[in-house]
């Protein structure tokens, strides 16, 4: 089938089956267009929880589908591709434990640590965090969650994204370090695990200098997964939905260069929007999901031959849910 035929079939199956299609902003355009619910990580988790359909097809990356399954265990959550976010893969349960031990060795007691995990992490890591009394955050609420965490009087152990952790520390005027760097964790308020997003690492200070010189008055916008060197030089830093809102409110003739995933930036507006990079910053895992995959998933429900359903171990789900719910309480 060509793309138009696939879209027609997808729409037919959507009408026939009790299914909701959820799509993150970084999905390919043709997949994104098919979404009944679209948004950033936090919005998608919230909307999916409130949705009544028994079947949910999540077009995004693994941790997103997993989070929905944990929050709504009675739903059948399917993913056209169980694509795993590269940053989420940088830490697992064993690495988490090892890093807590490392912290203890450097003189920070376990009871003085409050772990916070970015939602871009596996259910296993969320469960470890939940068991230690910690919680989850997303890029749109990280500051609020860390603020709340610091009220415990403990140090924050932030996993896996060192850039988000450091950017929030700078925003709040706090001290941070990255485990393994030459700073003493005992001196830091936020201790970051050494993880990062390879897509958001592509944006460089030279790109900002290039655009500022080429178009005086241009605004620079970035996602908090970018290096602090980029975020501190940006006019606006926000999650994907915050970036979209900010740009939609700008006058159409205002030039803006955006440091986040290509599919989102390309969809923003036709003119005066630039990708803050000389390369094409595409997220390989977000781009794995195709229209054909989406169609195959819907067809598998119709034929009762489901293959890509998300399952989470019961004990892992229990603690991961606690960590996620602590975020929603705040
Ligand atoms: P948002 O929560 O801002 O949508 O970010 C998700 C993500 O993976 C960014 O790389
Ligand atoms: Fe993960 Fe980066 Fe892709 Fe976001 S852009 S899903 S953090 S790899």
Q: Overall pLDDT, averaged?
A: 96
Spatial order of the strands forming the largest sheet? 6-5-7-9-8
Major beta sheet summary: 5 strands, parallel
Poorly predicted parts: none
Number of helices: 14
Q: Structural class of the secondary structure composition?
A: alpha/beta
Radius of gyration: 20 Å
Q: In what range is the share of β-strand residues? A: 15-25%
What does this protein look like?
This protein has 330 residues and is α/β, with parallel strands linked by helices. Helix content is 42%, strand content 15%. It is built from 14 helices and 13 strands. The strands form 3 sheets. It has a 5-stranded parallel sheet with strand order 6-5-7-9-8, with helices on both faces. The protein has a 4-stranded parallel sheet with strand order 2-1-3-4, sandwiched between helices. Strand 5, helix 6 and strand 6 form a beta-alpha-beta unit. The relative contact order is 0.17. The structure holds 1,3-dihydroxyacetonephosphate and iron/sulfur cluster. Iron/sulfur cluster binds next to loops.
């Amino acid at each position: 089938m060509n793309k138009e035929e696939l879209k027609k079939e997808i729409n037919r199956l959507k009408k026939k089956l009790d299914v909701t299609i959820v799509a993150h902003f970084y999905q390919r355009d043709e997949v994104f267009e098919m979404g009944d619910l679209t948004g950033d990580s936090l919005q998608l988790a919230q909307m999916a929880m409130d949705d009544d359909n028994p079947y949910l097809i999540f077009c995004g990356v693994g941790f997103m589908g997993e989070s929905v399954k944990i929050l709504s265990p009675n739903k059948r959550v399917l993913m056209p591709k169980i694509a795993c976010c590269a940053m989420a893969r940088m830490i697992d349960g064993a690495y988490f434990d090892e890093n807590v031990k490392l912290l203890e060795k450097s003189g920070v007691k376990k009871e003085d640590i409050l772990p916070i995990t970015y939602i871009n992490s596996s259910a296993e890591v969320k469960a470890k965090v939940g068991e230690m009394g910690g919680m989850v955050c997303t890029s749109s609420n990280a500051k609020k969650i860390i603020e709340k965490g610091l009220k415990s009087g403990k140090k924050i152990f932030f996993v896996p994204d060192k850039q988000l952790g450091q950017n929030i520390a700078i925003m709040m005027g706090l001290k941070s370090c990255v485990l393994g760097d030459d700073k003493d964790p005992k001196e830091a308020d936020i201790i970051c695990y050494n993880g990062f997003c390879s897509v958001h690492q592509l944006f460089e200070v030279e790109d900002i200098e290039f655009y500022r010189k080429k178009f005086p008055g241009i605004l620079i916008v970035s996602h908090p997964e970018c290096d602090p060197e980029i975020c501190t030089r940006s006019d606006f830093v926000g999650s994907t939905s915050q970036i979209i809102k900010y740009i939609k409110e700008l006058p159409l003739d205002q030039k803006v260069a955006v440091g986040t995933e290509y599919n989102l930036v390309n969809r923003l507006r036709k003119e005066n929007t630039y990708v803050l990079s000389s390369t094409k910053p595409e997220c390989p895992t977000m781009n794995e999901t195709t229209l054909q995959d989406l169609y195959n998933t819907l067809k598998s429900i119709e034929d009762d031959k489901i293959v890509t359903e998300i399952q989470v171990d019961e004990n892992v789900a229990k603690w991961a849910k606690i960590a996620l719910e602590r975020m929603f309480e705040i």
